[in-house]
Structure prediction request, 198 residues.
Amino acid sequence: MRDWFYQLTGKAWIALLFGIGILGWAGYAQFKAGAETHGTAVEDLVAKSGTIVSGSEITETTKRRRGGTTTRHYFVLDAKLADGSTEKWRVDHAIGRSKVEPLIDEAIEVRIDPSDNNLVYEAKLKGRPVVALADVQKIMENKDKVAASMATDKITLIVGAIALLLGIGGLFVRRRMASGHAAEQAATVQTPVIGEKV
Prediction:
């Protein structure tokens, strides 16, 4: 029984890392939700221009490792640039079809985030904003707040705290057991009698 418990406490570091991960995620999500800038900073956006040759609405479903699925919706604009090359620009689904459809077959100017699948932060048609930068930043802010509320949910925080305490406690108990076992081993070593050959 003791050996089994000792082996079990050897896995305590998994609980420790799990707890740190959950609480760290919660802290980061809360920090991100409270930040002044949501999404990509304006100075990191890239300005481009091109003619939208087609557009489509995408539904993307991904399976999670622990079961269940996650579904995302967004628009993709196929743009032909001045040099003849083509690019795909992604538009957040919250912008709405009514703002995306008028861009088809039109020459537009955009500001995109290349690090986020060319997400469009601003789109102008004939100098007039169709997708406004402020609207996209508001969408990003709302997403950050939703992520923060999920990460700081009471149950999530309790699970993270329990995992953290189990990890710390398990490692502490294992260390005590190891030092006790070493002391027992030292006590069982027979001291030879004087003059006795070992």
